[in-house]
Amino acid sequence: MSDKILMDLLQMIGLFFLNPIVVVSILAAIALGYFRVKRERRSFRVRLSPGLTELKRLLAESWLYALVLSVLISGVGLVVDAGWLVLFTVATLIALVTFYYKVASPIYFAAVGFVALYMMGKYAGDFTVRGWTPAQVDLFGELAVTIPVIAGGLLVVEGLLIRRHTARYASPYLMQTNRGLRATVFQAKRLWLLPVVFLVPGDMIAVYAPYWPQFTLGAHAFSLVPLPIIIGFSQVARSTYPDALYPKMGRAISWTGCAVVVVGLAALWMPILGWAALAIGVVCRMAISITVSVRERIGNYAVAPSPAGVVIAGVLPDSPGEKMGLVPGECIRSVNGLQVNNEKELYDAIQINAAHCRLQVIDRDGEVRLMQQVLYRHDHHRLGLLVVR
For the chain, where are the E strands, in sequence order? Predict the structure, then answer.
């Protein structure tokens, strides 16, 4: 019997990783890396990070948040409806295959699933699948609290991920300005996968999977259902540096998530506030994206050509340029005592001293600083810098 239980559990784990969301998200992460590398090479003839970076970081940056969320959901007893999970999954898949990750926030999926469940109960109450029917779902009861609170928690996690893990991997590329010059813009397009465990009331799952993890509380039975949650993010930074823009967006999104959780908890006394919490999350999350996009489109380019030297568009990881602390937007005025005004002059000046490099740099605030770095045989021959040209 124990061997059968183990085999069933392994089968369930296998089915979890074969979930369409997991499969599609892996393919999407590979595609994101492929198109990013093509765009960077088209602009700079070299890629900033390996093509599989998005795939490697799909789960690596988010698993701890998923674990915390799962413990909180199970520990507090935030139950959800199986039908809502299915609708949430369908909305996620649609967002994934469109590659339009501005709408790949879990607050949108949660709200779509919630409203779709209400519409099904109102207009298709007789619909039945495996004993489940939308007519039995009370969206003005416990679910009016648990779903907004879970959605708010996911929004907080989304903000934390954006704040901590987008600026470093923002992809630079060249764009033609209105004056015919070529300036640099940055695009952060990321996916994160969170394996979150949800509590589903009833024994519907146990009927078809007898050894699925289940427990009882009083007279009620609950199943533990692991579901892959996708968080997507896409934003172009043009008039603001990525390390200033994306953390600011992340903080705003996290605070929005906190507001959704607070209003959702207030639904314990007034259920309609649960609906209001989801509406607040959707409207505020949408407003953040629209406001930032409009500001970035109408503002001046933060990284544009300068007559004072060569402007840095990107720095390769683990390169001499990164070790020197160079960042996008800074301008190299001279190398080894020679003034440089373009990429060729920069390369020629570096070759003057193959073992040591001295730079005069104008930082983002217009201050001049001197930097130097010992160069080794295996180091990048151009300091690992992508420059505006």
Answer: 171-176, 182-201, 214-217, 220-237, 310-315, 331-335, 338-339, 356-362, 368-374, 385-387
